[in-house]
Structure formats: structure tokens, C-alpha cells
Amino acid sequence: MTTVEERIPYxxxxxxxxxxxxxxxxxGFKLRxxxxxxxxxxxxxCNGKETRWKGSHYKFxxxxxxxxxxxxxxxxxxxxxxxxxxxxxxxxxxxxxLSPGNTIxxxxxxxxxxxRINNLIFTSYRKNNDLPIGVCKQLNCRTYTARANRDGKLxxxxxxxxxxxxxxAWQRFRADEIARVSLIELRDGRINKRxxxxxxxxxxxxxxxASNGQQTNFRMNSDD
Length: 224
Description:
Layout: H1 4-7, E1 22-26, E2 29-32, H2 34-47, E3 62-63, H3 68-76, E4 92-94, E5 104-105, E6 111-113, H4 115-120, E7 135-137, E8 144-150, E9 153-160, H5 163-187, H6 193-211
Parallel strand pairs: 3-5
Antiparallel strand pairs: 1-2, 4-6, 7-8, 8-9
Helix pairs in contact: 5-6
């Protein structure tokens, strides 16, 4: 049986030729368009009104699109616009991959990626201490543990006496994981060459920081 979502267009225009955020296929029944839903999510992250976004990196975010029409036109021209995740949801709007640490949603800095890629580059962990990202202190002992996620599973990377050594282990793991998954996604046609090269650049940032004894100091957030 064909579902309502399969019967409706992804984006629709009104009679004046402007793209619509929502529309009513029949009286009393309103649906959000694909670009309308993404615009709504981006707007919530930028205005910080919802509790979910308060106190996070998103409080610095800005909408760099001049209006919704520009956003809709841009969206429909992008790789991944209509692509879906394995759970059926649409790809995520991302502002960090093409420009790490970026806080502005704009045509030049955004792209659409799968939830797998979005979670892969997510580094904005909630922290209650001054330890580097990916590091936690072992209770009742003097060692620190490095840990990271791989395909939704928490991986323990070992114990260290120096928190920076633990952080460097996390950086090297993240660099290898980003490169590994990016190549798989490219081969499967779920990212294009532009996004792949941007991801490899992020991988190199992690690896270079580890080699130079530096912390990775930019934050990348999970967009949806």
C-alpha cells in the first residue's frame, strides 16, 4: 500500500511560485515539506529556544541563508537531498564537514550526509571536567581511559597515566575510523567526492594534532 509520504512531492510551490514550508493535500491535513522540515530544525538550532540546544555549541549558530526560497533551491541542487538513512529518515543537514568548527549554515558550508557520517564526526561531548575529549578518569586510581564509538558501540582504547596520551589515542582512532567509514560510504555512493575529501581533511586534522601533541580543539555537532 502506498503511504501518504510516498504520494506527496518532496517540495512544493504555492501559486505565486514560492517554495512552501508546509502544505495541505486536503482540508484539515497539513504536512511539512522536506526542505520545510530541515529549515525548521535548523531554525531551532540557531535560535536556541528549545532546551535541547541551550548551553551547547549551537548557541553560536547562525542562519546564513537569505530566506527559505534560497534554502529550498539550494537543497534541491545538492547531493543527498532525497537520500535516506537505513531507518527511512532523510539525510541530515550538516554545517561542519566542509568547514570544521563552522557555526554558520550557508550554501557554501553545508551538505547532506547520512546519520552514519553525522555520528562519525560528532565530537561535542558533554563534559563536567577539564579532561580532553575522549578521556575519562578511572575511579579510585591514577589512570585515564580513552574511549570512542564505532558503529554505535563504545570501544575502550586503553588505560594511560597521562590524560594527553589517552587523548592522542582517541585522536588516532577517530582519524582511522573517519577514513575507513568515509571510503565505504564513497564506494556505496552515499557521499560524493567533495564530501569524501572534506572528511579525509578532518581525519588528517585529528592525526596531525596527535602527532604534534596538540588537543583537537574544534567542536563538531550532531545535526538532524
